[in-house]
Amino acid sequence: MSTAPKHLDYGLLNSLGGHLFRHAFLRGQQVFAEVFAEEAITPLQFMTLELVSRNPGVTHKDVCAAMVSAPSVLTTTLKPLIKEGVLLRERKDGDARRIGYRLSPKGAVWFAKIRTRIDEAENRLFEGLDKTQRNSLLAALRHLTGRSGDILPPAD
Q: What is the Cα–Cα distance from 145 to 94, expressed in whole angstroms?
């Protein structure tokens, strides 16, 4: 993690949530890239695969809504996964316009293998926080994003 120059006057920037969220987001992206450097996967692809693995047949529209993403962004994210045979597309209810996704057998094995490494990424991201701080931060983020109703196990 790079350290911000100490000699600069940041004014009110370091007290602004949006500014700090941006830096936290970038740190999360960097940590993910380090942990998954040997895999051809992006954070958006990981999120997509998690949603598809937990909801086989999930539609394009539902994945976009869950990820708060534009359909074109999801399409771009999915192309390499479909091309590599990790994800399968399927028509929903005979409607050619409604597409659902599921992991291929090959994709299920691959994702199960790499999914276990997300804990390493999370631990690196939250390095320096104790369990209480980490759980409090996650609870606050779930609240801010409207996901506080989700039941999640506490971080270890």
A: 34
Phi, psi of 103 (to 5 degrees): -70, 140
**CA 117, CA 33: separation in Å to the nearest integer?**
12
Distance of CA 13 to the CA centre of its chain: 26
Nearby residues of 54 by Cβ (< 8 Å), 6 or more positions away = none
Question: What pTM, to 2 d.p., does this model score?
Answer: 0.86
Q: Mapping DSSP to helix (H, G, I), strand (E, B) and coil, where does residue 7 land?
A: coil
Confidence of residue 94 (pLDDT cuts 50, 70, 90): confident
Task: Please choose, from the candidates 98, 97, 103, 94, the residue with its C-alpha nearest in 3D space to the C-alpha of residue 56.
Answer: 103
DSSP three-state, residue 12 = coil
The Cα–Cα gap between 30 and 25 comes to: 9
- Which residue matches tokens 């631990």? 123
Q: In this structure, is the dihedral angle defined by the CA atoms of residues 134, 70, 29 and 39, taken in order, positive or negative?
A: positive
